[in-house]
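Aggregate trends can hide what the representation actually does to any particular protein. For completeness, the protein is quoted in full, as a sequence line and a line of structure tokens.
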Amino acid sequence: MSLTEQEHSIVTWADFHRDTRKLVRKLMDMGPWEGIVALTRGGLVPAAIVAREMGIRVVDTLCITTYEEMQQGTLSVLKTPDAALAAKGEGWLIIDDLVDTGTTAREARRLLPEACFAVVYAKPQGRETADVFVHDIPQDEWVVFPWDSAPQYISPLGGGRD
């Protein structure tokens, strides 16, 4: 099914910022936190927002690539966060934008089993991997994030120009 045929939600910058601040409100009393591990690439933007709102200065990355199109569930860990790894994740937040099937999330939890895994949006197949999330998203819905799109002119439905 193509993106044009699939149900999709367009998330604006304002939506994403608001939803990530909701995530922060859920995390505020759960700390203290040693730092944040952003699950790249989707976790970079929410990690920056969480770090700012919570006053966390230590932000690292866990870089995992999935090759689900070629082989179901094939993973490659490109970079690990040394300090968080040494602590098995204890006192650390793993932040991501969305958990979909949970394949990447399960690997992150295997590497950092004591970390708190927090996501802004969660789909049913991966929801159990998240300790904290803000919104449920249907499994068959495609989320279009603001960093994956650009505003553009669209002709009026009635034809002609404005």
